[in-house]
Amino acid sequence: MKGNTAIYISFVLAAIVTAGLLIAIWNSLFDTETKAGHNRAKAWGNHLFIGGIFMALVGVLVYYILEKYGFAPAIIHGIGLGMILGPMMRGSSLSFSEGVFTSSTFFGSITVFVIVVVFGALFAINYMGIQRSKTFDFNKNKIHTLSDQTIKALKGLDEKIEVVGFALDRQLHIEGAVRAVLKKYRAINRDKFSFRIINPMKAPQLAQCYGARLRADDKKRRIIPLFLARGSCVESKGGLKFKGKKILVEGLSEQELTNKLIKVSRKKQKEVCFLSGRSQPSIENKNKPYDYGKFKQLLIERGLKVRSIDLVSLENVPASCSIVVNVSPESRVLMQQRISLTTARLSNIEVEAIQRYLKKGGKMMVFQEPLIETNLEKTLDTYGIQTDSRLVLDFTSGFQQNPLLPDVREFNKSHAITKGFYGRTRAVLSWATPVQVKTGRPKGVVLTNLMTTRSLRLRTPTGTKTCCVFSIKSPNTPGFRRIFRFMRAVKYRTLLSKIAGGLIEQQIKDAKRGPFNLAVAAAKKEKGQKEETRIVVFGDSMTASNNLLQFNRSLVLNSIYWLTQEKSLVHIPSKRRKPSRIFLTSAQKNFINYTSQYGIPAFFLFVIFLVMSVRRHQ
User: Fold this and answer.
1) Are residues 274 and 325 in contact, defined by beta-carbon separation less than 8 angstroms?
2) Number of H helices, E strands in the chain
3) Helix, strand or coil for residue 470?
4) Are strands 407-408 and 427-428 parallel, antiparallel or unpaired?
5) Peptide bond connecting 204 to the previous residue in cis, omega within 30 degrees of 0
6) In terms of C-beta density within 10 A (0-12 exposed, 13-18 middle, 19 or more buried), how is residue 275 classed?
7) How far is CA 120 from the centre of its chain?
8) What does the DSSP 8-state code read for residue 598?
9) Using CA atoms, how far apart are residues 545 and 289, in angstroms rounded to an integer?
10) What is the pLDDT, as a whole number, of residue 615?
11) What are the mean pLDDT values of the chain's consecutive 10-residue runs (618 residues total)?
C-alpha cells in the first residue's frame, strides 16, 4: 500500500512540475498581446496537447513492457498530463477553446485518434497473445517444446497449483528466465496452473509463510526460491501460516518441475515394498555396487515411501504396499561367498501371499538373475511370462566389449514405459537372463516385450547368419573359458566372423542363438477386480543397483510409475541438440554461388537500365 501511495504522489508531482515549467516558459517566450505572439502561443499549445497524448501512449507501452505499474509509467503519465493541462491553466491570455479547439488541433486530434486506435488494436492483439499464447517449435528434436509426459501431468490436475517465487530487484535477469519457463507450463492449463513472483522485501510476511530464505550470496549463486503450492497462506494468531501442501523447487529443468508438480498434486503417497529375508540386496547401503540404496533414495525423491517387508512373518502383503519388488541376489556374489544358490528361493508361504496380492489387482516388479530359481517362475507363467536361468552372452554391443554386459538400445516404441527411448537412451545390464513372452498367451493378459538384444547378420562361407547373441546354461565350463581367452587374443572383427561361423556352438554344446528379450510387462484385469494387475520382469538383478542405476534410471523409474498407474511418466530423457545439415550437389552449389554473386546484381542493373531508357524516351 505504501508503494502504491508513492507511485500516485510521483504521478501528481510530475504533472504539477511539468505544468508549472510550461507556464513559466510560456510567459517568458510569448507576448500574447500581439497577434504574432498570440498565433505562436496557439500553435505551441496545439503541439503540447498532441505531445501530451503521445506521452500517455508511451506510458502505456512502458507499463506493458515492465508488466507492472511502477514509477516509470507513472512519471511519464504525469508529464503527459502536465503537457495537456499547461495550456489550459494559462487561460488569462489564451482561452482553452482558442488554444485547443482550432482547425489544426482538430486534424491533429484526428491523427492522434487514429494512432490511439492502431496502438489499441496492437495492445489488444498482444494481450490476447499473452493470455492465449501459442508457440511453434520447428526444431527437429523439439527442444523448445514440453514433453508429452509434462503435458499429461498438467492436463490431469484436479486442483489449482500455484508457483510462488521470491526475487529481489537485482535479480530481474533471473526472474525473466523463470517466467519464460513457467509461461510454457501455464499455457497448457491456465485454469489449474498459475504463477507469481514476489519481492520478499515488500512482502516479508508472505516470504516467511512459504519459508523462503534469501542468503547473502543469492545474487552470486543465481537462485530464486520457487515453491509449488496446493493451498494458500491464511491468517492466524502468530501471523500468516500455510494451509495445504508446498514443495521447494530446486531447479528449472523440465524433469525437476514436472516431478515436483506431480508430487504436490498427489493426495495419497504410494508405497514401494521390497521383499527381504532371502539374501536380497540391501536397500540401505549406497556404496556397494550390488545393493539398492541409491534406487531407494531416488524413489523417495519422487515422493514415494519405501520399506522392506518379510512375508514369512507377515504371511500377507500389507494393504499399504502399492508395489512389491523382489530382487534376486547376485549369483556371482553367492558363488564367490560359496553360498548355495537355493537360498534365493522364496518359500511357499511367500509365493502364496504374492499370488493373493496379484489376484486383488496388485503390482509387482521382479528382477531375475541367471543360474537362480526364485520359486516365482510358475506364478509368472500364469501371466504369460517365461523366465530362464540361462546366461546371455552379447558379442554385438556388449558394454566396453564385454559380452557379459549387454548394452541394450532396442526398445519397444509403443509401450508407456519405453516410449521415446529408441535412439535416445540405452540400458546396461550385467549377467542377464532371457525373459520371454509365452507362446500360448493366457486370455485377458496384455504382454509386451520392452527391450531386446541387438542382432547382426554376417556373411559366412555357408551363408548369411544371425549373430552374435547367445545364451548358455553355465559359465563354469572349459569352453566358456576358452572363448574368453580367444576373445582377448584376436581383433573384434575377427572374433565376430569366427562366432558367426559357429565358434560358440563348437565350444559350448548347449548354446542357443539370440536375439533375446530382457524385460517384459504384463497387464491383466479379471472380473471383480477394482484395479488392473500389472507385472514388470527384468532379466538382471543389477538393473537398478548402485552400479548400473546411472544407465537404467529412465527405464526403472518409468516402470515404477507405470505400475503405480500414475497419470503421466515423469522421467524425461534429455533432448539433444543436433545440427540440421543440408547436402548439396556441385551443380546446386554453383547455382547458389553464381546466382547470389552475379545473377541478382545483374538483374538490378538491368532494371535500372530499363527505367533510365523509358524515362529518356519520354
Assistant:
1) yes
2) 21, 21
3) strand
4) antiparallel
5) no
6) buried
7) 37
8) I
9) 6
10) 76
11) 69 80 73 68 72 77 70 82 72 45 54 65 66 64 73 84 81 75 86 87 84 58 71 80 82 79 80 89 90 90 87 90 91 72 84 92 92 89 89 78 85 87 84 88 89 75 69 81 76 73 79 88 84 92 91 90 69 58 76 81 82 73
Q: What is the pLDDT of residue 292?
A: 93
How far apart, in whole angstroms, are the C-alpha atoms of residue 572 and residue 167? 28
Report the distance separating Cα 330 and Cα 102, nearest Å: 96
DSSP string, 342-408: GGGPPPHHHHHHHHHHHHTT-EEEEE--TT---S-HHHHHHTTEEE--PEEEE-SSBGGG-TTSBEE
**All three cell numbers of 314:** 507377515
Q: What does the pLDDT read at residue 105?
A: 52
C-alpha pair distances (Å), 78 with each of 74, 112, 610? 6, 19, 56
Asked if residues 161 and 192 have their Cβ atoms less than 8 Å apart, the reply is yes
| CA 82 centroid distance within chain | 51
Task: Answer for the pair 461, 429: CB distance below 8 angstroms, yes or no.
Answer: no
Does the predicted TM-score (pTM) go above 0.70? no
Q: Which residue in the block uniquely carries the three cell numbers 556374489?
A: 333
CB atoms within 10 A of CB 100: 20
Instruction: Note whether 302 and 258 are within 8 A (CB).
Output: no
CA-nearest of 264, 254, 255 to 227 is 264
Report the candidate in 50, 108, 107, 104 with the shortest Cα–Cα distance to residue 80: 50
Adjacent-strand bridge partners of 248: 227
Collapsing DSSP to helix, strand or coil, 325 comes out as strand
